[in-house]
Every structure is written in structure tokens, then in C-alpha cells.
């Protein structure tokens, strides 16, 4: 039996050049390095905060509001919705229902129509009217200024309560953890946790209590402007030298 001839074609000069491995720049993520702990982590967190404060000296809550009632309503509407969209909806809503007393007696159909474009509008309308009714029944029409009283209101969880306490009452009871805060807390090496409650617990000991509200604003602003979820702009980020997730070219 004769040997079978190989069907492989001889390499031409061009194909040989193409087959030769090309030198490439290897990207190494710093997250492979050891996680900072203790005083080193606190020092890292302080340096990040100072840089963010320098970058965004006017960072603030971007939900338009004039009082605790309006902020509570706007924050409930902000679930799965942009602040920009909420701010487009709330002027008409507040004109129709300027107080908890007015919202408490509103028809669900009317409220649904006003908040329709924020998404999940039926659930949100039900929460808004329920929140107002509870505030009227238990707090004399005034939004309560404690975590315990806020988190039992319809539509209000810990994140919403932190927003209201920090921005309407100036009370730093915790840290608002939204998608931006959670993402940046991981990328900046503050915590590996992905659950909002655990992320908040990790952030609290790293920062001074009087900075908790502002910390959220700074992380949110940086998340929106630079540290995007899909395409972070590491090349222009001034936090890159100390960011444990920034790519290193070797």
C-alpha cells in the first residue's frame, strides 16, 4: 500500500508571514493583584474620594425637588428609570399633587397616566398613593426623618430612604448604593461584594460619616461621565494610577 500524499499546501512567503505570531500588547488587569485591606484600603479610599471631590466639586442629587415629599416621590419613580426622565415627569405630577394630602386621595388611573413614561407605571402609581396615605395616617402628612419610619412606606426601600435622609434632611444614616456606586465600588477595589446591602456595609467604615451622602453623588457622577458600565474611559481617567481595575500595558 502506498503512503497517502499530504493535502497540505506548501507555505508561500506571504502565508508564512501571516502564520508567524505577531507581537502583541498583553493587558493585565490589576484586579489579579492582592486586595487592599485595613489601613491601606482606607488610605486608598481617602485618596479616591479626594480626587473625585476635586473632579466634581458641585456633585449633587440630580432629581429635581423642593422638599422631602417631592424627593421621596421622585426617588420612587427613579427605579429602573433615568433621573432625566423623572425630571420630565415630576413637574406635572407635583402641580397636580403638591402635597402628601393631595396624593393620598388621588385616583390610581390619574397617577398612572402622569408617570407612565417612567416604566412600571402601575406599580409606581400604587406605591406613590400608598406612600402618601401612610404618611397621612402615621406622620401627619410629613415625610418622616428616620430610617425606621421611611423603609416601611410603600415603595421605599433602604436606598430611597438614604437618598431622602441625606439630601432632604442632611442626615447621613448610610450610603446610597445604586448601579453606579456598586460598579465603581468593585472596580475601585473597595469591596468584591455585589449585593447592595453588603456593598454599603463595606463602604461605611472606609469613609467619614459626614461624607456618606456626597460619596454617592461623586461615584454616580464619575460613573456617568467616565467609568461607564460597558466602555469605561480608562485612558482619560485621573483615577487610573490608583484604580485596581485599570488595564496595564506590558
Structure write-up:
A two-stranded antiparallel sheet has the order 1-2. α3 packs across α4 (83-96), α3 (68-77) runs antiparallel to α9 and α10 crosses α12. The longest helix is centred in the middle third of the chain and has 19 residues, at 121-139. It has 12 helices and 2 strands. Mean pLDDT is 90; it is low at 1-29. The protein folds into 2 domains: 29-58 and 174-249, Orthogonal Bundle (Endonuclease Iii, domain 2), CATH 1.10.1670; 68-168, Hypothetical protein, domain 2 (Endonuclease III, domain 1, Orthogonal Bundle). It is mostly helical. The chain has helices spanning 13-19, 38-55, 68-77, 83-96, 100-104, 108-115, 121-139, 147-150, 158-168, 179-187, 196-203, 212-225, and strands at 27-29, 247-249.
Number of helices: 12
Order of helices and strands: HEHHHHHHHHHHHE
What global shape is seen? elongated
Radius of gyration from CA coordinates? 25 Å
Strand order of the largest sheet: 1-2
CATH class value of the largest domain: Mainly Alpha
Percent of residues in beta strands = under 5%
The name of the CATH topology of the largest domain is Endonuclease Iii, domain 2
| CATH homologous superfamily annotation of the largest domain | Helix-hairpin-Helix base-excision DNA repair enzymes (C-terminal)
Spans where pLDDT lies below 50 across 5 or more residues: 1-29
Q: Provide the number of structural domains.
A: 2
Number of strands: 2
Main beta sheet strand tally, sense and closure:
2 strands, antiparallel
Amino acid at each position: 500500500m502506498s503512503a497517502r500524499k499530504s493535502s497540505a499546501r506548501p507555505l508561500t512567503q506571504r502565508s508564512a508571514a501571516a502564520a508567524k505570531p505577531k507581537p502583541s500588547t498583553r493587558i493585565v488587569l490589576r484586579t489579579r493583584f492582592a486586595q487592599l485591606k485595613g489601613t491601606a484600603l482606607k488610605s486608598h479610599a481617602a485618596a479616591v474620594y479626594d480626587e473625585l471631590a476635586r473632579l466634581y466639586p458641585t456633585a449633587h442629587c440630580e432629581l429635581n425637588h423642593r422638599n422631602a415629599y417631592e424627593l421621596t416621590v421622585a426617588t420612587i419613580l427613579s427605579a429602573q428609570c433615568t433621573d432625566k426622565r423623572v425630571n420630565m415627569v415630576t413637574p406635572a405630577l407635583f402641580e397636580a399633587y403638591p402635597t402628601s394630602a393631595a396624593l393620598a386621595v388621588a385616583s390610581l388611573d390619574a397617577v398612572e397616566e402622569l408617570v407612565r413614561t417612567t416604566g412600571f407605571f402601575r406599580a409606581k402609581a400604587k406605591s406613590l398613593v400608598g406612600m402618601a396615605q401612610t404618611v397621612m395616617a402615621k406622620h401627619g402628612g410629613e415625610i418622616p426623618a428616620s430610617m425606621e419610619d421611611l423603609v416601611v412606606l410603600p415603595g421605599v426601600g433602604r436606598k430611597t430612604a438614604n437618598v431622602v435622609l441625606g439630601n432632604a434632611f442632611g442626615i447621613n444614616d448610610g450610603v446610597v448604593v445604586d448601579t453606579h456606586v456598586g460598579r465603581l465600588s468593585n472596580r475601585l477595589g473597595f469591596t468584591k461584594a455585589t449585593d447592595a446591602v453588603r456593598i454599603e456595609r463595606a463602604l461605611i467604615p472606609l469613609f467619614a460619616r459626614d461624607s456618606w451622602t456626597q460619596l454617592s453623588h461623586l461615584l454616580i457622577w464619575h460613573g456617568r461621565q467616565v467609568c461607564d458600565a460597558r466602555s469605561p474611559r480608562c485612558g482619560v481617567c485621573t483615577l487610573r494610577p490608583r484604580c485596581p481595575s485599570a488595564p496595564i500595558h506590558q
